[in-house]
Every structure is written in structure tokens, then in C-alpha cells.
Amino acid sequence: MVPLIVPDAAGHGHAQGLKRTLRLRDVALLYIATTLSVRWVATAAAAGPSALVVWIFALVGFFVPLAMSVMELSSRYPQEGGLYIWAREAFGDFAGFLSAWTYWMSNLPYFAAILYFGAGAALFAAGERGHRLAGSPWYFMTFAVTWLAVITAVNVVGLNAGKWLNNVGSTGMWLSMLVLVALAAVAAERFGVATRFSWGAMTPHLSARNAIFWATIFGAFSGCETGSFMGEEIEEPRKTIPRALVVSGVALALAYVLGTAALLVTLPAGQISGVDGFMQGTAVLCGRLGLPWLGVVVAGLLVLGAIGGAAAYLSSTSRLPFVAGIDLYLPPVFARVHPRFHTPWVAIVVYGLAGMLMAALGQAGTSVRGAYDVMVSMTIITTFLPFLALFAAMAWAQSQPAGPEVMRVPGKRPVAIAVAMMGFVTTAAAIVLSVFPAEEEPHKALAVAKVLVLTAALVGAGVVVFAIGRRKKKKLLELGAVVSDR
User: Fold this and answer.
1) How far apart are the C-alpha atoms of 137 and 360, rounded to whole Å?
2) 419 with 65: CB under 8 angstroms?
3) What is the average pLDDT score of the chain?
4) Backbone angles phi, psi at 5, to 5 degrees
């Protein structure tokens, strides 16, 4: 039997056939997998002790408003799709689609970035044998594409299987952070600290020179919105999501602050690389304490963390085109649910293939690498754009009735509006800061123009896709129902 997508009076379909398989542990670890990154710890440490205070600013100014907004919005609208549904309910179908479009497009280069990092960590774990592959683009491309294929296949089989990639990877990431902090504490006791933590050194300064750094640190706390994309695959989402936000929020704050402090205890800021600084600091600590084998273990944990981060984003973000397919703004094929595995398999496979393409572009030659760099530039601003819609939807929701089942933020409407305004202003500021070119950029005006034009191109592409989808949707609705072999 071939079921139908039967839109409601507003022209919206409804997800069917999904299984609720995610529990509190799974959602909390998902948030850690999508948010925690040792790369940001190294980037922060390279900026010096003032980064510790910037982490606090980012926690209070961005993560707390984001977590509180996600908690209430996911309680008001616990359907599959999260951000897509919230923006759609608040501002209409166009806003919902464009929010989803910019979110899933801006995350495509993430798969290549995180898996290339994992590939590098694997070479470190391999020791001398891995040095031969350090300069091989084919190795990095093969590693990323192969793991994306595995992640895609596992997620098609179902979240019962896919969630373990998220969970194991998340565990690898925070365990590696825990090892670094523990080693730094022991080394500080024995050998002293490499950085002076004075009030002057810890006073942050916002300038054109470090604008991108501030935007990066604030963006490092994004990720706790992802669980709600799978709202109809979470057991008791109105209870599970708030609890997971609290657990993961505490873990993330401690990991970022303590991890940054641990690197600064180990090395002066000027000697920390923002790219591989975490492994650099770990290797130094293991050498000082006579534990070289532990560095290999940490490298292995980072490989797991990279795979888990990619898996978490693929499993969650692939639900956005699935819901857009249900609403008929993407072809109805995106709304297909596997009859055996009960997963949105077409949306997962398409998103996985797109990630593999981006991973291949990253290492497939000079001209193609240039195309990859262009795509990365396009995501600088679009990473933050969906959060403007999220916080605006939070403010709008305060004018809507809330039943007794809805979990409100403490203080309800006044606090909720204040939280939404804080998050919106912080996000807007991060967007402005992200436009500033790097200090070493020789053509600053051209760099700014490039970012703005490419961002407009990506957003414009979403507008075109929506317009085409709306026209096709109108024709399909005239038929009375839309057939889908979900």
C-alpha cells in the first residue's frame, strides 16, 4: 500500500512512521557531540588568558539564551524539524524554509573539516607509520568519504544503531578533554605553570584584530538546537530535552574553560597552534610526565570524537530536508520513511552524499580546492543567520497561548522576551564580527565583499529553491493529495 502525504488546511504535512528511540543519555551526548570541539579550545588558548573570560561571555550571552529558547520552543512545538517548525509557525513557510536551508547548507563543510581533523589525529596515533601519509590528500579524502559513507549507512538502518556513533564519539571527545585537564593539573603541581594568569592578562579586548576570534568563540556554543530536529524520535521530548540541556550545558562550560586553562598551564599562548594545539599540548604533557603511550590513547579518542561529531550533525540536520519534503517545498521523495528501519532514508542519503562531495572537494586538486574554499567562505555568516530566526521565534511565541504541558522559562514572558532579545543581539553582533577580515589578509575590502556576495548567493539559492518548490507544491495540491512511497 502506498500512503499519502495529506496536507492540513495550512498546506503542511505531518511526519509519520518514525520511532522514538532517543533517551536522556542519547540527547545529552548528542548535544556534546555537536557542540564540544577541541579545535575551539586550542583556538581560545592561542589567544591567551583573556579567552577564559570570553568563554564566560559566550556562555552567558549566547549559550544560555539559546538553551532556554530551545527548551521552551521544543516544548511548545515538539514536532520533527525543530528550527524549521519554529520559524515557520512564527513567520510563515518562507522563513521556515530559509532558516532550514541556511542551517543545513552552512553545515556541509563541517563534515570535511571535522573528519580531516580526525584523519590527522589517526596519523598521530599511528606514530612513525603515519608520517608517510601526512602530506597525502588522497588519505584525508578517503578517510572522510569512507566514514561519511559508514555514518550514512548506519543512520539509514536506524537511530538505534546511529545513536551509538554519536554516543561513542561524544564520549571520546570529553574523555580526551578530561585527560588533558588531569595531566595539566599534575604537571602544574610538579613543574609550575607556563602562563601568568593576572587580572591584566585576563581582561578581554574587542578590536578589529580579534573580531573573528570573538565570533568563533560564541559560535562554538551552538549545537544544542540539533536534538529538537528529531523531536518525534525522542522519548518524552518535553521532559528529555530540558534535562539534556542542563546536563550538557554544565559539561560544555567546564570542558571549554578548563580545557583552555589546561593548555595555557602547559604552554605559553604564543606557542599554541590554533589548528593542532590540543594534540601539541597533550604531547608536551605526556612527555613531561613520562607517559608517551597516553598521547596515542588521546589521539585515538579524538578520532572517535571527530567521527561522532560528523555522525551527530548528519543524523540531526538531515531531518530538516525531510520536513521540508513533507511540506512539499522539496520534492516529496525527501519525505520517504524506510518501511523497515523507520528512518527518513532519502533525506539522510542525500545529505550524506552532499557531505562526501564536500569532503572530496577539499582534497581533489588546486582548482577544486578553490571551489571548496569558496563554499567555506559562504558559511561564515550563514552559520549564524538561522539563530536570528530562532530567537525571534522565541519572542513571538510569548504572544501565543501555552498549555499546562508546555515548559516555560523561569519568569515566563518577561524573562523569555529578555532572553530572546539577548540572544538576538548577541547573534547579530557575531554576524558583524565574522565579516571582519583576518589581520594578515592583504585585500581587506575585497575579502569583506567576497564574504557578503557569497553569503547573498547562498541565501539567494535558497530563495530560488523555495520559489520553485512553492510553485510545484501549488500544482500538487491541486491534485488533492501527494503520493509518496513512505
Assistant:
1) 10
2) yes
3) 87
4) -90, 110
Long-range contacts of 402-405 (CB under 8 A, 24+ apart): 402/76, 405/75, 405/238
In sequence order, what are the residues at sequence separation of 6 or more whose Cβ sits closer than 8 angstroms to the Cβ of residue 251? 28, 32, 36, 174
Q: What CA–CA distance (Å, rounded) separates 59 from 401? A: 30
- Identify the residue with better confidence: 117 or 274: 117
Would you say the C-alpha torsion 226, 298, 273, 142 has a positive or negative sign?
A: negative
Burial (CB < 10 A; 0-12, 13-18, 19+), residue 290, is exposed
Domains in the chain, number: 1
How far, in Å, CA of 481 to CA of 191, rounded? 72
- What's 351's domain CATH number? 1.20.1740.10
pLDDT score of 102: 94
Q: Is 210 exposed, middle or buried (0-12, 13-18, 19+ CB in 10 A)?
A: buried
The upper half-sphere exposure of residue 362, i.e. CA atoms within 13 Å in the direction of its Cβ, equals 27
Return the bridge partners of 234, or none: 22
Q: How confident is the model at residue 484 (pLDDT cuts 50, 70, 90)?
A: very low
Domain span at residue 77 reads 4-483
Share of the chain above pLDDT 90, in %: 58
- The sign of the torsion formed by the CA atoms of 275, 281, 287, 293 equals negative
- Give the whole-angstrom CA distance, residue 144 versus residue 148: 6
Separation between Cα atoms, residue 45 and residue 201, nearest integer Å: 12
Exposure of 415 in the CB half-sphere (CA atoms within 13 A): 10
Give the whole-angstrom CA distance, residue 377 versus residue 207.
21
Query: In the predicted model, is pLDDT for residue 175 greater than 80?
Result: yes
